[in-house]
Design brief:
The chain starts with a helix and ends in a 47-residue tail after the last helix. The protein has 7 helices and 7 strands, in the order αβαβαβββββαααα. It is elongated, with a radius of gyration of 21 Å. The chain has 2 domains: about 1-115, 3-Layer(bba) Sandwich (FAD/NAD(P)-binding domain), CATH 3.50.50; about 120-210, no CATH class. It has helices spanning about 1-5, 15-25, 60-70, 140-145, 160-165, 185-200, 205-210, and strands at about 10-15, 35-40, 75-80, 85-90, 95-100, 105-110, 110-115. Bound molecules: flavin-adenine dinucleotide.
């Protein structure tokens, strides 16, 4: 990594935890002359650093604090409202990022794209899945995880009911169940799998009894809000911050 990025101009594209991780790691190369341009689609940095001390997942909070520190220390040039439309090479062979509104990020040596992902569902195309058109998550789950609405980490407990599809006994669990939504945590996956296994084994009461409260991020407001803060009619989704609860897994009742 050091050889590739030391003394270089690096553009980091994206505003999620992976982008924050890259900013912190690249800022550690500041003594080699590494220059960092942080390219954001959103109009303001807003909550990109997360909830910091208010984050109930300390490691996630600490990551945001470190990234904020790297920006505050002047190691990172922040470029907002940048919707990348093209990446070109200049006469010297260096990269130029061009945005739809005429902005340019020039003299770039390396581009680190951390702009999220979406599920590969091509191999499931013969099955009757019911997916949200925007999120590509199961239609019953999508409203619970839509980052345009929920960014405070509020993901309501869900299990087999929200993960079911018209195709009988077919469930997407884990990261794939979240489609394009970025807030999946392993704890959620464990609970999803517990609920699915209970359903497949016929213990429908246990399958439907989902008991998980995820650690809050400590910040609120839908991702879309940050493209144009003036548009924020959502009023946020956040109720009072609930303390995380111990997960109780009940053994399937003797049949
Ligand atoms: C950078 C990053 C950091 C994260 N950090 C955290 C964290 O700290 N805490 C947390 O709770 N969550 C974290 N997450 C979110 C999430 O919990 C993890 O991504 C988790 O690994 C998701 O588990 P999964 O089983 O759904 O998918 P994965 O862990 O991605 O497992 C899918 C597996 O399927 C295999 N596979 C794919 N296609 C095929 C195929 N055709 N045939 C056979 N096998 C196949 C893959 O090789 C992979 O091993 C992070 C995510 C990312 C991207």
């Amino acid at each position: 990594m050091r050889a590739r990025y030391a003394g270089k101009h690096v553009a980091v594209v994206g505003s999620g935890h992976s982008a924050l991780t890259a900013l912190v790691a690249l800022a550690d190369l500041a003594d080699t002359g590494t220059r960092i341009s942080w390219v954001l689609r959103r109009g303001v940095v807003g909550d990109a650093f997360g909830g910091g001390d208010a984050d109930q997942l300390p490691a996630r909070g600490a990551l945001g604090r470190r990234a904020r520190g790297s920006v505050a220390a002047g190691h990172v040039q922040v470029v907002t409202g940048f919707r990348t439309e093209a990446v070109e090479r200049d006469d010297a062979g260096r990269l130029v990022l061009l945005s739809g509104n005429g902005q340019r990020v020039s003299d770039v040596d390396q581009v680190v794209v951390l702009a999220g992902f979406r599920p590969d569902l091509s191999w499931l195309s013969e099955l009757r899945l019911e997916l949200d058109a925007t999120l590509q998550a199961p239609v019953a789950l999508a409203p619970l995880i839509d980052p345009n609405v929920h960014s405070c980490g509020t993901v309501y407990p869900h299990g087999v009911k929200e993960l079911a599809h018209p195709e009988p006994d077919v469930y997407l669990a884990g990261m794939k169940s979240y489609g394009r939504a970025p807030t999946f945590l392993a704890m959620t996956g464990y609970e999803q799998v517990r609920s699915i296994v209970a359903a497949i084994s016929g213990d429908h009461a246990a399958a439907e009894r989902v008991e998980l409260v995820l650690p809050e991020t400590g910040v609120c407001g839908g991702a879309g809000v940050f493209d144009d803060p003036a548009q924020d009619q959502s009023g946020g989704c956040c109720g009072p911050v609930a303390a995380p609860e111990m997960l109780t897994l009940s053994a399937p009742s003797a049949r």
